């Protein structure tokens, strides 16, 4: 009997919660910050949980949750109780924002991959031209020993380490533009040494 009574109490509380949230939303829509704070406290646990289930990343989930409540604050005057409960309305915003973040992160990762691949190719197309006929590692090492050390270091990281120019810049602390300049100059010297070796 106690269990049935408690269940009945919970059921009775549902309309009360809907009414309370609707009242807080109406009050917040009028610009009352205290009402919005109360609305935030009531909604944030459930909205954050929903967002985090989609993103699986606490940092992104926290950021998106703040974006959601900013949108709720801005759009509060547009809410209409007859169109649905406050929680459903807010959850729709949260879901859309979370999905947008997933797409944004995926697009950013793809852009980073594409940019890295382009830099990798840029680093290597000179290497391919100059070294296609000189795949003997010892020969290349010998040729590298005859060019300036700062150039040889970068070419070694790119050719033997498989690193992009941006990765080399990040690891060495050398500006990306300087890395590109040194690698171009180094490749020219390396080409000359390798071609000289082949002619002999």
TrEMBL record:
One of its GO terms (molecular function) is DNA binding. CDD domains: Sigma70_r4. Gene3D superfamilies: 1.10.1740.10, Winged helix-like DNA-binding domain superfamily/Winged helix DNA-binding domain (1.10.10.10). Pfam families: Sigma70_r2 (PF04542), Sigma70_r4_2 (PF08281). One of its GO terms (biological process) is DNA-templated transcription initiation. Residues 138-190 form the RNA polymerase sigma factor 70 region 4 type domain. Keywords: Sigma factor, Transcription, Transcription regulation. Residues 39-104 form the RNA polymerase sigma-70 region domain. Belongs to the sigma-70 factor family. ECF subfamily. This is RNA polymerase sigma-70 factor. It comes from Rothia aeria.
């Amino acid at each position: 009997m106690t269990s049935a009574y408690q269940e009945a109490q919970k059921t009775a509380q549902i309309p009360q919660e809907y009414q309370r949230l609707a009242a807080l939303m109406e009050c917040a829509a009028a610009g009352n910050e205290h009402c919005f704070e109360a609305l935030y406290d009531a909604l944030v646990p459930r909205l954050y949980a929903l967002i985090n289930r989609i993103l699986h990343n606490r940092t992104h989930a926290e950021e998106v949750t703040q974006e959601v409540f900013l949108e709720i604050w801005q759009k509060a005057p547009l809410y209409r109780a007859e169109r649905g409960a406050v929680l459903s309305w807010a959850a729709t915003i949260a879901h859309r924002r979370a999905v947008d973040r997933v797409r944004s992160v995926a697009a950013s990762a793809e852009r980073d991959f594409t940019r890295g691949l382009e830099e990798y190719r840029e680093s290597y197309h000179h290497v391919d031209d100059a070294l296609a006929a000189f795949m003997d590692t010892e020969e290349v090492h010998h040729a590298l020993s005859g060019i300036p050390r700062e150039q040889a270091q970068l070419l070694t990281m790119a050719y033997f380490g498989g690193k992009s120019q941006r990765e080399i810049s990040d690891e060495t602390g050398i500006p990306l533009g300087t890395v590109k300049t040194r690698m171009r100059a180094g490749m020219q010297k390396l080409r000359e040494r390798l071609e000289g070796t082949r002619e002999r």
